[in-house]
Amino acid sequence: MKRVKKMIEKFDYWSAIEYMEREIKEGRRRGDYLLELGHLYRGVGEMKKARDYYKEAMESGVKEAEEFERLTEILLGEKEKMEDKNEI
Fold first, then answer.
1. What is the CATH number of domain 2-87?
2. For the chain, what are the domain ranges?
3. How far does CA 31 lie from the centroid of its chain?
4. Residues 55, 16, 54, CA angle at the centre, nearest 5°?
5. What is the maximum alpha-carbon separation in the chain?
6. How confident is residue 60, by pLDDT bands cut at 50, 70 and 90?
7. What is the DSSP letter of 12?
8. If we measure between CA atoms, which residue out of 72, 71, 64 comes closest to residue 47?
9. Closest CA to 34 of 58, 53, 13
10. Least reliable range by pLDDT among 7-11, 29-33, 66-70, 82-86
């Protein structure tokens, strides 16, 4: 996680996402990694992916992920409302 924190400090979110995705694919599927991926995806505006990782983190026992999952649901709802207004 130290490497990821350094990437985040440099605002290199996509590299941090790639690194964390690779860690998970290699079998290090931990709740804190899933939560961090949710934060990273939310940071780059990928709300659906963020929500999915928050849900996985919740299933892994990370209680704080629930509030972030709810936040992304609200943000997704607001985004859909904005898209509907733009279609008119």
1. 1.25.40.10
2. 2-87
3. 12
4. 5
5. 47
6. very high
7. -
8. 72
9. 53
10. 82-86
State the angle between helix axes of 47-59 and 65-87 in degrees (0 to 180), rounded to the nearest 10.
Answer: 160
Q: What is the pLDDT of residue 46?
A: 92
Q: How far apart are CA 38 and CA 50, in angstroms?
A: 4
The amino acid sitting at 33 is: Y
In 3D, which of 23, 44, 47 has the Cα closest to residue 33?
Answer: 23
Q: Name the more confident of 85 and 69.
A: 69
Are the CB atoms for 55 and 69 separated by under 8 Å?
yes
**Which amino acid makes up residue 14?**
W
Dihedral, CA atoms, 79, 83, 85, 88, nearest 10 degrees? -170
Across the chain, mean pLDDT equals: 88
